[in-house]
Design brief:
mainly alpha; 5 helices; 73% helix; Mitochondrial fission process protein 1; Mitochondrial_18_kDa_protein
């Protein structure tokens, strides 16, 4: 019989989307204050630190050696920071910015409508960028950090 695969609640469940709170903030950047956008980043980083703490604790329980725990913490922190905050935040920011720039070519579209269209572009792109960014970040980590610290 096949062993059941353990579900990672931080990466395989709806909780993963908390890491994308900053993308929602970036999507609404044209319409909300900077404090709201910064708060969305605080949520995303809280998620990142939660996953890091969980992975570190699991390694502490499993192995207990400080070096292994530190390597696991570094892996989780780097992966989550890249896959949840930095890369998707940049992608959504650029999509919304370029949407606004493009829509300025059409002066008959009111400014508020252009802002809402950019919000729609940002929000609607989130489901499409999750898997490619996650798998690209995993590839990057496998090619660099994990190879350097001999995680695998």
């Amino acid at each position: 019989m096949t062993e059941p695969v353990e579900t990672d609640i931080w990466r395989d469940t709806w909780i993963r989307y908390l890491g994308y709170a900053n993308e929602v903030g970036e999507s609404f950047r044209q319409l909300v204050s900077t404090k709201v956008v910064r708060s969305s980043y605080a949520i995303a980083f809280a998620y990142t630190f939660g996953d890091t703490a969980d992975k570190s604790y699991q390694m502490l329980q499993k192995d207990g050696r400080p070096k292994r725990v530190l390597v696991e913490a570094g892996d989780a922190l780097l992966w989550q920071t890249l896959a949840s905050v930095v890369i998707p935040g940049f992608v959504i920011n650029r999509l919304c910015t370029y949407s606004i720039v493009y829509l300025k070519r059409y002066p008959t579209i009111p400014r508020t409508a252009r802002s809402w269209i950019a919000v729609g572009v940002g929000l609607s792109s989130i489901p499409f960028i999750v898997k490619p960014i996650d798998s690209s970040t995993t590839w990057l980590m496998d090619s660099t950090y994990r190879r350097w610290v001999k995680v695998h």
